[in-house]
Write a structure and sequence with these properties.
elongated, transmembrane helix, membrane, single chain
């Protein structure tokens, strides 16, 4: 086995574990923001309402807001899970095969979907969190940053690369059948 393939396997094994940690973190992020003091300080720039307002919610409103906040994180958790599966395929020397390419496609679509869902989720969160307030005090907040635009382009780039790899694999299989 070449040194490059050994490096691919080693780095892929490490990145597979990093993806698994990322999946767990994504799933736990929103509950941590709600229930652990200090976590919100690092996430406050992405919140559409204050943590004090969130913690003051109760009943259906609290769970609806939490669910709306979980939408983008669950999409990203799925994407990271598929990316992990791609890396695990690489550790078994399945490089130019349909399965890892399909995992890369799924990750890129999840990355773009999460990026598009995030501002919608933020808007939904602000509406749900303030819906019981009197008229004039209700909030609809939506935003899109340069980071989200860059992430959309990155997701699109990864999707195109996955399509190109899939086509190359198909052509290689077709050429092998002629020989």
């Amino acid at each position: 086995m070449s040194d490059t393939l050994k490096n691919v396997r080693t780095v892929s094994r490490i990145l597979g574990w990093v993806c698994l940690i990322g999946v767990v973190f994504e799933i736990c992020l929103v509950p941590l923001i709600w229930h652990v003091d200090g976590w919100i300080d690092t996430s406050a720039s992405q919140m559409t309402i204050s943590i004090e307002e969130l913690r003051a919610l109760s009943g259906w409103q609290k769970y609806a807001v939490m669910a709306s906040m979980m939408l983008p994180t669950l999409v990203m958790a799925y994407g990271l899970w598929r990316l992990r599966k791609m890396f695990l395929s690489f550790t078994e020397n399945h490089i130019f095969q349909p399965a890892p390419i399909a995992h890369l496609k799924a990750f890129s679509v999840a990355l773009m979907a999460q990026t598009l869902i995030k501002p919608i989720s933020g808007a939904l969160t602000s509406v749900l969190a303030t819906i019981t307030r009197p008229e004039g005090e209700r909030v609809l907040s939506i935003g899109l940053s340069n980071a989200e635009v860059s992430t959309l382009f990155l997701g699109g780039l990864l999707l195109v690369i996955a399509w190109v790899l899939g086509e190359a694999t198909r052509i290689e299989d077709e050429n092998r059948s002629f020989v």
